[in-house]
Amino acid sequence: MLEIEELSVGYRSGKKMIHALGPINLKITPGDIYALIGPSGCGKSTFLHVLSGITKDYQGKVTLKGEGLDPKKQDIGFIPQNFGLLPWKNVQKNCRLSLKIKKQNIDPLLAERMDYIMDKLNIRSLQDRYPRELSGGQKQRVAIARAFIMNPDLLLMDEPFSALDALTREEAQELFIDIWNQYKTTTLFVTHSIEEAIYMGKKIVIMSHCPGTVVEIIDNPLFNTENLRENEEYLKLSTHLRNVVKKGWKI
Ligand SMILES: Nc1ncnc2c1ncn2[C@@H]1O[C@H](COP(=O)(O)OP(=O)(O)OP(=O)(O)O)[C@@H](O)[C@H]1O
């Protein structure tokens, strides 16, 4: 369980403090996937930066599995908007990065897991290529592979599919859910797309305008539904989401 209590973040800008986020109170249950949506500038990236350990200056309490958040002790995966691949490492080395950092030996079980993930994402043939030699969709698939190979306690993704064209985006979303269904990695991702939130979020967390707080958490009955737009419930849920979002965003 990831527990967030009264989390607030402020940034210093000259003599002023900018209240960027919170207070946020949220419990993320293990083995679930949460979509986080909210208006531009409400603090979504700031929130992910706290959870990934990039931002250490915050108020409130964040615990993962009952212990204070500490990326040195807990495995936290983070896929940023630009995929976060290291340009000087080829695909294979990028995928194995977390294992190298943890000095983890590749036993037969882990090797099998790596092969399974790379096959599923269709990137085995790309192992020797460098990020500059990959398309956007291929980079995304490598980033997803790296995250699942790491097998993190918590996976964070900041608009992970926004840089992809519509078809590649749909394909990447499907591949992600396919692998996620296998490993059920606890995941929190930020998106601006209501459709993406409905397709990929088992739970949908709606944030208010800046400083972002949680407006509503929706248990999503349409998670992982194929041909989403053709589903009668889709129109109802997306209209409801849009309404809550509007209320919360005070447009
Ligand atoms: N380093 C910083 N110094 C000062 N203010 C900052 C800094 N980083 C972010 N902010 C402010 O904090 C607030 C939250 O920013 P953040 O990037 O977390 O929002 P966001 O919801 O991720 O935005 P977007 O959807 O546009 O990516 C914004 O008002 C932003 O201007």
From TrEMBL:
This is Nitrate/sulfonate/bicarbonate ABC transporter ATP-binding protein. InterPro entries: AAA+_ATPase (IPR003593), ABC_transporter-like_ATP-bd (IPR003439), ABC_transporter-like_CS (IPR017871), ABC_transporter_ATP-bind (IPR050166), P-loop_NTPase (IPR027417). GO terms for molecular function: ATP binding; ATP hydrolysis activity. It comes from Geosporobacter ferrireducens. Keywords: ATP-binding, Nucleotide-binding, Transport. Residues 2-234 form the ABC transporter domain. It comes from the Bacteria. Pfam families: ABC_tran. CDD domains: ABC_NrtD_SsuB_transporters.
